[in-house]
Amino acid sequence: MQTVTYRFDATDIVDHWRVQRRGNRAILVVRIVMLVFGVGYLASMWNVGVFDMPMPELLLSVGIGGAIALALVLLLVHYVPPAQARRVILQQKSLRGDWTAAWDAQGIGFTSTNGQSRLAWGDFHKWRESSRSFLLFQSDVAYSAIPKRALTDIELVMLRDSLLGAVGPSR
Fold first, then answer.
1. Which DSSP letter does residue 169 get?
2. Each residue's pLDDT tens digit, 66-113
3. What are the tens digits of pLDDT across the range 11-69?
4. Last residue of a domain, one of 91, 114, 132
5. What's the CA gap between 103 and 119, in Å, rounded?
6. Number of domains into which the chain is organized
7. For the whole model, what pTM was predicted?
8. Domain CATH code at residue 109
9. Which residues pair with 87 in a beta bridge?
10. Which domain holds residue 132?
């Protein structure tokens, strides 16, 4: 049986959210709809003659609009998720304590200050790996996570091999 102990930080939580959303069709549909509406908005501006203004004013307008859009994207991508993750850690006491994961050929167990669970490998319908974590999914929204920084190189390979053998390839 292999055992590792770790504590989550805000960077881990943001990584978990990012990995969980990867491949989410609803998010892809929202992005496509936003792109279509953006192109439609530009086309409607073209039809009403907005782009007929002199070049300096047009460049200034496009530049200001682009700067605002870029600032919003940077805010939403780089500031909001870490702030949300820090807040979640403050709210959810189980994330503040030490966690222990122990696995063998039959499954994996997790122990924290709030309790413990043991799951057979067959209880997971998929798993994903990022540069920072392993996420083991019981459903599309319920997952268990193990930060890679808690694993030695040998444990990392052993956990990946256990997941590949019992659950199948990462998806």
1. S
2. 788 888 877 777 778 888 888 988 898 888 889 999 999 999 999 998
3. 899 988 888 877 666 666 777 777 777 777 766 666 666 566 676 776 777 778 778 88
4. 91
5. 9
6. 2
7. 0.71
8. 2.30.29.30
9. none
10. 2-10+94-166
